[in-house]
Design a protein that fits this description.
Blueprint lengths: L17 E3 L19 H14 L3 E4 L12 H14 L4 E4 L19 H5 L10 E5 L3 E2 L8 H4 L7 H8 L2 E2 L3 H13 L3 E6 L2 H13 L7 E4 L11 H10 L5 E4 L6 H11 L2 E4 L16 H14 L7 H8 L8 H8 L9
Helix pairs in contact: 1-2, 1-10
């Protein structure tokens, strides 16, 4: 991104798009019973509460009544329909892993099969976006978690800790291109979940080959454990590579989340929060719910002088419903240099 003179001034920035992830699929209900919704109505109500607080993008997972993350697409259909009715202007973004929570103690934390994840393109009603990880990789959620982060949570159990430490996600090139094809054919947008520069370069190469003709909506996820580290150096490298036509959101892990989001707000970029990412206030002792995290970011953004986007504005900024016809059109719209011409 070309961060020109004046880019830190609010009049030169987009309105802030806040994504919230309030369903915490990796957590057990006992980890934060006051904030993690269980019944279908509670999950719908949580989306409405988050929207009222200022979040305009809902990162959606579904929980079964036994407390486990749901892997049934019928439950996703039910929740999407309920959220659509309750908050029609909210952007619904389905988590592409479906649910990576272990089925039982001692099992591996893993993403579902390729064929099952392809079925997200058939959800009815359709979501606005599905998140898409690029390049099969380690997804070690606990590498930079501190003892204080996991104290008193299910992650303190050795079997659970091991399951998330060893987690990987499958996202090979053939599956990724087919998934993009299916989502695009059904007018479902893509939110690229990018943890490192190599994955970002793969997205650019797909766009240059004409197999990824979509708006470049990115979430940078510096959670270490196979992804970048949440520090200024990795942030600067990543931001520098992203073209001006992209919409870039920052996401991090536990108490790194607020500082990373503050830097995103200051630079005119966008943010994600919620109990899927973080359970704690910055003192490391107080649990801090999804709605409280949203309200905190709204307040901080206003102190920067930067207004928060409403639902309709967020859809415009994310270019929901927009798809391109060719590599040339995709590259131009997203701000990349055109493909090389023959010498």
């Amino acid at each position: 991104m070309n961060l020109l003179d004046g880019h830190l001034l609010p009049e030169n920035q987009q309105k802030l798009v806040i994504t919230v992830a309030p369903y915490g699929p990796q957590w057990q209900l006992s980890d934060f019973p006051e904030d993690i919704p269980l019944t279908m109505q509670e999950q719908i109500d949580k989306a409405a509460e988050c929207y009222e607080a200022g979040a305009t993008v809902l990162h959606l997972h579904v929980r079964e009544l036994d407390g486990k993350g749901s892997k049934r697409l019928s439950k996703f259909n039910e929740l999407i329909a309920g959220v659509r009715k309750a908050v029609p202007d909210m952007v619904i973004q389905v988590g592409g892993s479906i649910s990576f929570a272990p089925e039982s103690e001692g099992e591996a934390a893993k993403w579902l099969s390729d064929d099952t994840r392809h079925m997200l393109a058939e959800l009815d009603p359709k979501p606005d976006q599905v998140t898409l990880a690029i390049n099969s990789n380690q997804f070690n959620l606990v590498e930079i978690m501190s003892e204080a982060d996991i104290a008193g949570t299910s992650f303190a159990q050795p079997a659970i800790y091991h399951a998330y430490r060893e987690m990987t996600f499958p996202a090979g090139p053939q599956w990724v291109e087919e998934h993009i094809k299916r989502l695009s054919a059904n007018d479902i947008g893509i939110q690229f979940q990018i943890g490192n520069m190599a994955s970002f370069m793969t997205v650019e190469r797909m766009m240059r080959r004409g197999v990824c003709n979509v708006p470049l909506n990115l979430t940078w996820i510096p959670i270490a454990g196979g992804a970048d580290t949440p520090d200024l150096y990795h942030m600067a490298q990543f931001v520098r590579a992203v073209p001006d036509g992209a919409l870039l959101t920052f996401e991090s892990l536990m108490r790194n989340t607020l500082p990373i989001n503050m830097m995103a707000i200051a630079q005119g970029l966008h943010v994600r929060c919620g109990n899927e990412d973080n359970l704690w206030a910055q003192d490391g002792k107080t649990k801090f719910g999804s709605v409280e995290q949203i309200k905190q970011l709204v307040r901080i953004s206003k102190e920067f002088g930067r207004p928060v986007a409403n639902g309709k504005e967020a859809k415009e900024l994310l270019k929901i419903g927009t798809f391109y016809k060719s590599a040339d059109e995709t590259l131009a719209a997203n701000g990349f240099a055109p493909n090389r011409k023959a010498a």
